[in-house]
Design brief:
78 residues, rod-shaped, mainly alpha
Length: 78
């Protein structure tokens, strides 16, 4: 087994870290980027830049679609 240089070791560790971060971004859409950053010990901007670099789709945000009111035409009262 060849001995890695320090540079190669750091590159491999960063690649593994980023892979885990991207997998959490994809799987845990219920968490915000800030929450994910806090759990990994990195800044929100690092999470955002990593998501953009690996084309991770953004989670949906904004108001929820309004439901249309339904009318009960059976004539029965509640």
């Amino acid at each position: 087994m060849p001995i890695q240089t320090l540079k190669e070791g750091l590159y491999a560790a960063k690649a593994e870290f980023v892979t885990r971060l991207v997998s959490v971004l994809i799987e845990r859409t219920d968490l915000s980027q800030k929450q994910i950053g806090n759990s990994f010990g990195v800044s929100e901007s690092f999470v955002r830049k990593t998501a953009k670099r690996f084309s991770v789709p953004q989670r949906k945000r904004g108001p929820k679609p309004k439901r249309e009111a339904t009318i009960d035409l059976s004539g029965s009262e509640l």
